[in-house]
């Protein structure tokens, strides 16, 4: 039994990774999981937040947001509502945690990298696309810092990070759910993993349903295979040279 | 190798459940996991939020908060800061989702139950204590609604819900972490489960570390055993009669 | 003519004072005026707010709040509404002013004591219970600072502070009104006094009614007698030793 | 011993009351207590707030604010800070309560009167000037409503309301303190009274000092005499005809 | 003397208009003025804001925002700051006013069109690019409404709207300033015009400089010629068919 | 054809300028354009905002606001709504920009002047009255700073600034529109000019209408003549001596 979009249960949507999408940030990646499109921009600033100042450690954080026009029905703008919603907060924190798991903040030196993940078009799996794209933007920002001679240590990235959703739909475990499946899934799980096959984060939820331990095990199998495939596509994208002009050593902050 | 507080790795802290702690809410439970103390109050109102009105379905939601004096160092009050933080939002949503997994909202009828989980004293595991206590408060509120003749169906609760934390500390998988262990855990996971042994939610995170699939499997084993013990203690507490005065049928809203 | 709860007009409700209610704050007191229960926690931090820095003077301030579940009908959470209401502000300021009247801020040294008064259960007179309990928590915090060798002067407290409500109900002047009386009082007054019998603050209001000078005089008589009785109970509670572990001199901040 | 401005201890500053200061509101009064100048505008709208709708009762409320340029050192604008401060809230509530004590809300009919008290220049006693001026603006708004045929009953005002400050300065009880005295007063009290000599509200505070019952008694004597003089001046001002064009019966809302 | 990018003083940058950029909104246009890229999305909803309800008139409004990563130095997110800044407000209002000048709101019927203008990359002239692109998105949304049979009148658009910046740089009047010129311009003006050559809005400012009437006249000449060229490019873009699937008459709201 | 108030099309309303309206600010001017009354207060503080600190340059900024009672129908207070509206922001920024065009910020030295423009009564043209009055208040504040010996250079003001509205009403170009004309104008323009006849800012808008280039030219002619007349009245007002007590050299900050 094929899915609406013709995929097998354990197959990812078409993944496209475009580096150098914007001109100003040190890393700027448009990532697409099917119709889901997220712009991941890694901006570098010298120094760290005050609470971390003088520690010798760098800082990596993320902010996730959705354009009002990204969803089927227009969403209200959080700046107009005057506050960031719970879901937005939750996803921003997840992205930040996930990326910090793969970087040695001492090696980064006292630099801050902010990764903005702005959803241009939403069709399910925006947070997992964001994490997967954010890693590529982060890698470009690290390359940029290295060229500028601003890293405390040449290679702060210890592994690659990718993420994918998996769920139970129509009683079947399925990978990388589009909105049409996500909205009626009985169980929904997001898995963040490294290219060494280890886990960074899992979040599995059954709203209005519960799930057996054996289902969880099957979902993990499928998700980890999906993450491995995403890691392969990230590596492929990063094999091309840096998509902009690298700074001279001791270059100015960007 | 025993833990600081003398427990074995797979043993819960002392759990105490006090029903009827406050006089006004339909359910009011003080739950203690060792030194962690959370006051869980279930308040009932007639009707449902506007977006749900007319559906015939009830609504259950939760709000988690921490007293400024609950933590080792005094925390700022979120009302004074003028906004609810990301962590607070995240936990409130988790509690609400977890409780909705065990209740049939059609059977509840067009009533709203808000469960306030206010942490009186924090020593690790406040969110899992909150979920475990909130279930007991919810059960009392359902009893209250039943006595008032306001349920659409006599038994809306389909299972009991409990939650516990589990983590990797000093390289060992340990159950129900106090703050001293939690703050230096390599991996931290919260598991919400039913008394049927099925899962409602799992959230596992390795900040600054990653973890193997086999570690995840071991953590799940330990957590599910912990949840089963918590379910036993909940049932024991609920075996006593309702700790207040039940309303007459068609009683006024409380 | 006795009151609903059997008291004479000029008699206080049952007062209970429990010191050491929480483990972290330097002073933590649960005070009960009948069914009204307020948790008063005094947290100590080194240093003072910026506008006071370098003055050699300490600072004492208070924050009052109500748990949503404390009232007969659940109240909305001020953190969720995104701002502190006028009544909350007013009471917080009153508590802070009242406590500052009994402490020599130069003797306190450049330390800040924040007193959180969180209402666990409300049945009238929450602000007066809060002031009365906050004084006891403040006294414990001062003892704690003294043991730590952090006071500029050994005894900064110049007097004890207590507070009580008094009102005109059914045409009679009555002391310490529970909610049932408070809600229909013609005149409502709060009196804050010292154990020397002097006044710190009086606030008397007739919403929808006015009152004669002679009624005011009678209310003051009754309230001052009530405050004297509360001072006696505070002294009794403080006669027992400090309910926790005192720091060593030059101990760390708590 | 005369005061800095040459007055005796129990004498008011020069009081000036200008009706019809603005053209749009139904009542608009500029009141001056010496250099303190407050613009009190009473605006009328048909209907009442939702929570009062259908009760047949009207509503009277007040909003107090200070121009940034009114004080010796420029104050920050509360609209720019994004919230109303505690002191502003407190005074707004006091003015509203005081005015509601003199009006029969059933006689007012389902109309709302909002009294804006904007301080143009501050030199002590702004809240008492505001109350005294607000009463005059309210009286004009009631006249306006009467002419429009919109009162449920011809005379909703049951008494006149005035207010004055009194304090202990240099050990002496003094009436109507300017900023120079107010800022160093040992005790500070505001008294709101009716032209029948009864009390509506008293608020007495000793920040950094306490005061004896006998001092309180003396302050009340002086304040009540001051209020009586203010009532005389209000009556004198209101003896002149309405300072604008009165509406025809059944006139449109203003 | 050529400009940094080789243009003559009165020549536009390369303009690119891409319709159908997103799948959900009724109109979605990516417009590029050189390196400035703005995504303009027109979302349609049935009904109008409450204050306009029952008037038979439709409503068109706009919201402008900038991605944090759009600028040379990363900007703070307005949702995180908790309020929309003055510049953002000002530009949103300008876009809305400009579009309302070209549409007959009675012909639109009781529909609301919200045009979100999100700046993907900023290099000067974002507000003028936004207006020019928003018109094209609006035209597509009107086509969509017409196909759905939801217009009160078949052709509500009375003219086309475009906008361009003009300024004085290095003493010369120049058209369509990139950031490098804009940031050092002595005078800066934005002109919104119709394809009939009439004006909708002009805003000219000399911060830190003033300008002669004759300079203003020359700037208007250049800007109006630029607007005419933009109108030509809009018409060219709109000559192609609607870039998505049009609804059936009486189609559901989109 | 005369206008409702009997003026010819190109004639200003009665203009009154009262210096020294308040006692505390260094400059305080009540300006009246017919029934429009705006209080413009220039407050001086030593130092500049942090982002400008150490530059040797001063800063001039403005805040515009409207009293709730200033308009025909009472407006909500922005402090109560918790945020400054778009229109308020826009006008505040316009006033600040306009004044900065006439002052040499290096000559001002590291002082900040904040100009509060509070509308006491609104009848059209409040922003142009505010700019015209603000200039006079600014001139007084500069005189005050000069007397105190706090200017870096004796004469920082390079020109005078005035502003006026002009519009098309009933098909005729008219100067200085009162509310009655403003509310039905087809085109509305504000012009800010110097006493040298040069322009600082023009903002012209046709909401619901467009206008020809020739109409714009005619509006500019009329507005510039109006500004010249306003400059004459400003000079006349400033010919009288400073309306308060000037500080001694090296006087304290005011």
Automatic annotation (TrEMBL), chains A, B, C, D, E, F:
It catalyses: tRNA(n+1) + phosphate = tRNA(n) + a ribonucleoside 5'-diphosphate. It comes from the Bacteria. The keyword tRNA processing applies. GO terms for biological process: rRNA 3'-end processing; rRNA catabolic process; tRNA processing. It is an enzyme of class 2 (transferase). Its EC number is 2.7.7.56. GO terms for molecular function: 3'-5'-RNA exonuclease activity; tRNA binding; tRNA nucleotidyltransferase activity. Homohexameric ring arranged as a trimer of dimers. Belongs to the RNase PH family. This is Ribonuclease PH. It comes from Saccharothrix violaceirubra. The gene is rph.
